[in-house]
Amino acid sequence: xxxxxxxxxxxxxxxxxxxxxxxxxxxxxxxxxxxxxxxxxxxxxxxxxxxxxxxxxxxxxxxxxxxxxxxxxxxxxxxxxxxxxxxxxxxxxxxxxxxxxxxxxxxxxxxxxxxxxxxxxxxxxxxxxxxxxxxxxxxxxxxxxxxxxxxxxxxxxxxxxxxxxxxxxxxxxxxxxxxxxxxxxxxxxxxxxxxxxxxxxxxxxxxxxxxxxxxxxxxxxxxxxxxxxxxxxxxxxxxxxxxxxxxxxxxxxxxxxxxxxxxxxxxxxxxxxxxxxxxxxxxxxxxxxxxxxxxxxxxxxxxxxxxxxxxxxxxxxxxxxxxxxxxxxxxxxxxxxxxxxxxxxxxxxxxxxxxxxxxxxxxxxxxxxxxxxxxxxxxxxxxxxxxxxxxxxxxxxxxxxxxxxxxxxxxxxxxxxxxxxxxxxxxxxxxxxxxxxxxxxxxxxxxxxxxxxxxxxxxxxxxxxxxxxxxxxxxxxxxxxxxxxxxxxxxxxxxxxxxxxxxxxxxxxxxxxxxxxxxxxxxxxxxxxxxxxxxxxxxxxxxxxxxxxxxxxxxxxxxxxxxxxxxxxxxxxxxxxxxxxxxxxxxxxxxxxxxxxxxxxxxxxxxxxxxxxxxxxxxxxxxxxxxxxxxxxxxxxxxxxxxxxxxxxxxxxxxxxxxxxxxxxxxxxxxxxxxxxx
Length: 678
Hints:
Helix content: 25-40%
Number of strands: 24
Distance between the termini: 97 Å
Radius of gyration: 29 Å
């Protein structure tokens, strides 16, 4: 006879069981703001998560506002309301705001005051010294300002910056109207500077640079690219006690005698860039041997790499990175680099004529700890080089070898067999086939794979990549005409973290591929121009599934029409850049995009359904546009006052007068490309 056993609860458990459920209790009320801030720190990777949190209730809205430290507004006219909400900002990025006036900067300085530590104005215009002075005076804790590309700023603006006494990092690239006088004011006022970039500040010469070196003794990083300086200012620079990074790219007044001053100072220098300095030879480089802590050296587009030049550098015992891009290289030079006692970790030989199998092999024999290798457009290397690379450098994490056209397809099998730690591979425009891709799929750490113009690969090889490379973030299949929906589907299934894909001119791709890719929720860049079988149905799937979409290129997708714009407008609220040229979108579809507040760049060439009135209405509705590329015929059809209105707000119009060109067969296109290369 069956018996049943009754479960008897102890008094404490009985008490818990009989308690009434707690209702309407927000447990977040029991947490301090500091603890909730720690929780919010984990949401930084996805901005929509933070937004969702803030919309839960008024309490969460307030907490998220107090927690936020950095902000990237889309339009400067929103600043007053934004700054009222976010009162704890320390960093303000205004690169998406093309028009920032003095009034905007005054508003920022009055709202943020001493909280603000960093501001980026590198893509903004229309402000002057008055606005900068307000920042410098009110934001006492400002340590970082980026004013790159502010071509209208004069010395008066530089003098205003001198009030920022705690400034440590300053970028003035392409501020071409600032002269020695302005730089001198900064040098006197901003004694705590640790980094300054004067790249392309053509009004600054020896006097301004010398003043910086004399007054700002804490400088760690100094960029003087393309300045008309001579050897007069170099002794002061080389006496800086903490200088670690010096960029002299394109300083044509620097020669061998100029570098002689290096022997007597600059013991702290770790990185030196003297690329495009044609007047520096091995004699000048020999002076660098006193820099025993030099770790990175950039000699790109400079003197030929000969035996003498390589020998002049062999005493740099701490050197682990050297870039020789665009330099003419001899076998003796490569062999001499191979004999250095130092073990390189980063070597760049991109577009170096003279690199051969023998020379590369002799170099790599010694440098077996190499992590990054760039042999882009080294058109003389063959199977032998790849064999030697993969035997000697098994710890490679990055291999770039675009357009190494003499490397046969069987050589690519060696890469996957021997270099399993690769994270980045660029084999654009090569003879790799499916067997090579199958081998590369063994590289389980791979995050970036570029296969553009590889005409021998098919779905079979790409599917292997999808199955083996689950960490893939970027995949470039530009003009890989052997790829169809099957291969893309395998990638979408196996690489859920994919963020960027280029399937441009893969003519057999259909909506099925886009539906598969819509499962990759982190996808932010889709380049699918020249895919005529894609329709609005596939685009709708991307819009619904990939809410992080930022860049979309559907040029020459002739079957995409207004029906694809509606879901895009509704779901893709993070979209910033779109190319609709040669599609079937009309006035209605273009106007619907006005609901995307982030949209800034719009390319609309050869839209047969677009009228002048429709264009005018769409432009007025899309208030955040900063760049529009248009057919030149619209210039006379739309009122000039409308264009002037947008240009006053900071929008740039680019006019094109190109006729429609039929697509070439991929093989013919590649042959034309090869003929154009010298």
